[in-house]
Amino acid sequence: MSKAFTGIVAAVGCVAIASLVLNILIWIKVKDDYSDTKTNSEPNLKFERISIKADPIPTAVRHTAQKTRPAKIRLRTINSTSKGIPFGSNPEPMYVNDSHFCPSYGEPDNKPEYKVAASYILGGLDQHVDPCDDFYTFACNTYIKNHNASEMKVERIGTYDEAQDAVNLNITDALLPVKFDDSSWSETERIVKATLLACVHHSRARKPIDNVKDVLLEMKELFGGIPFLNHTLKPDLDLFNVMGQLEQNHAMGTLMASMVSVDYKHVERNALFIAQPSLPMARDYYVLPQHTNVLEDRAKNVHLMLKSFAEGVLDDASPYYDMIKAAARDVVKLEVQIATASWPDSAMRNYAQQYNPYTVEALKKRYPSIVWDSYLKALLSSVTGYDIRSTNIVIAQPSYISWLNALIQGGTSNETVVNYLLTNLIFEDADFLGGIFKTRMKESQYVKYAVRSGRGITRIGAQPFPRGSAVDPNIECLNTMMTYMPFGPGYVYVKSKEKRTEVVKDVEHQTDLVFRSFLKMIESLSWMSQTSMDLARKKAAAMIKNYGWPKDLFGDFKNSAKIDQYHKQDYGEIINLYLANSTHNYYLIRKTMLKGYSNRESLKLIKEPGDRNVFLMSPALVNAWYQPERNSITFPYAHFQPPYYSYGFPQAFNYGGQAGSGGHELVHGFDDKGLQFGPDGSLSNCSWIECGWMDAKTKGSFRNMAQCVVTQYSTQCCPQNTGNVRCANGMSTQGENIADIGGELAAYFAYREYVKELKSEEKRLPGLEQFTPNQLFWMGYGYSWCMSITPSRLTKQLLTDVHSPSICRVNNVLQNIPEFAKDFGCSIGQNMYPPAEQRCAVWIEE
Predict the structure, then answer these.
(1) How far is the first Cα of the chain from the last one, in angstroms, to the nearest whole number?
(2) Which of 5, 378, 380, 750 has minimal CB crowding within 10 Å?
(3) What was the pLDDT predicted at 541?
């Protein structure tokens, strides 16, 4: 037990006032920020009355939108007590501030926003746990007990997931008055409304709408037949033309994958990047011998999917069963070959090695077996008035393209390649082939290509695992829409926010303090040369900050001309499709979305100049990101809500969450990837093997700092000690871990600067008066990572994700920040306050 924490009895004498029962009305926020929704009706808030004591503190009951969708506003009071400690029982010892901290006991602020903030913290807090021993469990145990992923039949549920669900439901409510056939509404809102209605109807249909005929027709047009059903392919089949069509029309990579982004050696222009494809499973599952069982499951799932398809299109598929089984094995064998030829994630951290520019003619000479003209013509067919011969092309993994060239040259079977392409197409279209196909897709844990591949050169937002099915189809449909039509739902969401200008102004100031604090941190480094220090300042000063939404595109939310034009060309047909058949046209509507996404968000950019202000993804995503090739950080408006931020919450809460995210993204500009890119986003000071603006001596010291983090995360074996895959990979997660540690420390220093500006400490939260604002900062950070996850999902995350599991992102991070231990009175040598030689000083002198 720490010196600052002891049994509840020791605290009662000092803080007798805290033992009084406070009957307070807690506004449990499910779908929106407090008083921040533009509507003529009452705000979408749920009310619950709870009795809060300091001895013990009960848990506020919060309802996740994933379980049930809250009803429209009804004010009600519910007497609720903690599930763990019923009133009238003898409380077990809790860890609270002892007499050492009595003089710091503070007065609470009972305004509604503070009560809401308290409800969030109480929803995770378990004071039976010593925060100096296991802070994650201290901050999250109650949440995890009340959100058991296995019992909820999901692989993962966390505060982040609930926040995204709340945003999606907010968009649903904002669309209620919109009439898709009324031109007085913006075309963007009408397109979004029509798409959502069509998707929800498709999801709710008692008998799933079957579009097998549409899919078969496309297959016939593309290939002439289906090899795994013993069909003959058309004699003039051009595989590379088909691959280009599939990428453009289905947002689906094949034997290779292309995207248009800024040319990061010539940032004034864009380039077409051609790379290895993203496979349905992580590379390690295909190439490491300990995962042969996973590979066998993959072959089984492909077999069952192809068999179901055959049974759905044939009166009697039994004569083809052996052929289907053999085809499934061949498909997975080809995936293994692709994985073996592909670069592992650990090899894709050096961007000098991934920048290999070519003209079309040079490509044809270097890789002659690949029919480049056919591929590029089909891929870019929607880019009008464009000469393909002028395309600036960058090959990201040249050894993979060499392998592909050899594969084609070696006369690999067209039937095998077509079966591979058909398998991917069937999985992508499974939602439209009948109920059994959706079941097969779920059993396979298949993730749509665009979702698992992410955006930009660093694959921002890539999700290698299924999101999990929500009870409310509005949530699931909007998740899909935000991938394929990101700025439509984003526009609807931001427009519904009444205080958006004030919120952004607050976050801007917060972020400015984080930047200033981080620069002070690096100025303390004895190992950074003056030259590198000056370049670091220059890079930070030049970093683009995108707050909330793309201002130029969205305009003033009164004149929608620009955002409507943005959507009209590629998504406008959706309204006509919905009006033509509101119940059966979602297949065509989704195809329109897919093609719109490929063209509007990627391929058509090839004609445009480079733009450092690109927002990249939806403002309605609960996320934040750094784009090294643009040296920009982006904070979507959806991130400005709990568990990260809320206007009116204590700034200690907001700085622990949103400012920590800001610090995290800022530090990405200075991690092992970010250091390769200069102030304007271009690769900087390149040698024949690597790029980077640090001088050699400083770079060596940086690598020592990074290696400390790599070694620490690998050797501590977070989070578990059993199983085939059990530790976070310190090497593959190093960028995120460095950003977590350095970013949260910068946010903490920024908060202390804010307090100096305020010239006084903030008031406490009601029911949590014994916790100082500094402690609330760390508690808010911990709460933002509360998550229940199944063992199987955790194993996959450890194997494939560049992010460490949530418990590591709390405990391992705070173990490296002595300021945390001091704020909680931890003693040196306790788990959360290891000796200096066991800590990593990240972007600061120890």
Answers:
(1) 25
(2) 378
(3) 98
Asked if residue 56 has a cis previous peptide bond (ω within 30° of 0), the answer is yes
Distance, CA of 846 to CA of 268 (rounded, Å): 41
CB 733 within 8 A of CB 673: no
Arithmetic mean of pLDDT over the chain: 88
Contacts of residue 423, defined as CB under 8 A and 6 or more positions apart, other chains included, come to 302, 305, 306, 328, 331
Whether the upstream peptide bond of residue 643 has omega within 30° of 0, thus cis, is yes
- Look up tokens 């006509």; give the residue: 576
Rounded Cα–Cα distance for residues 260 and 273 (Å):
6
Q: Write out pLDDT tens, residues 396-421.
A: 999 999 999 999 999 889 999 999 99
Poorest-pLDDT segment among 40-44, 188-192, 727-731: 40-44
Spatial contact of 165 and 482, defined as CB atoms under 8 Å apart: no
* Residue of 581 and 468 predicted with greater confidence: 581
Q: Are residues 534 and 420 in the same domain?
A: no
Q: What is the CATH number of the domain that holds 516?
A: 3.40.390.10
d(CA 415, CA 308): 19
Long-range contacts (CB closer than 8 Å, 24 or more residues apart) made by 758-765: 761/106, 762/109, 762/650, 762/651, 762/652, 763/106, 763/107, 763/108, 763/109, 763/114, 763/650, 764/106, 764/107, 764/108, 764/109, 765/108, 765/109, 765/114, 765/117, 765/118, 765/121, 765/650
- Residue carrying structure tokens 């480079």: 610
Q: Which domain holds residue 558?
A: 507-567+616-838
Going by pLDDT thresholds of 50, 70 and 90, the confidence category of residue 723 is low
What is the structure's pLDDT at 46?
30
Query: How many helices (DSSP H) and strands (DSSP E) are in the chain?
Result: 32, 13
Amino acid at 435: G
Tell me if 85 is assigned to some domain: yes
Work out how many domains the chain is built from and give that number: 3
The residue among 375, 405, 428 that closes a domain is 428
Out of 149, 170, 202, a domain closes at 149
Cβ-proximal residues to 521 (8 Å cutoff; 6+ apart), any chain:
742, 745, 746, 749, 843, 844
Task: Say yes or no to pLDDT of 765 above 70.
Answer: yes
- Looking at the structure, do residues 122 and 240 belong to the same domain, yes or no? no
- Note whether 726 and 810 are same-domain residues: yes
- Say what the pTM is: 0.88
CATH number at residue 416: 1.10.1380.10
**DSSP-based three-state secondary structure for 683:** strand
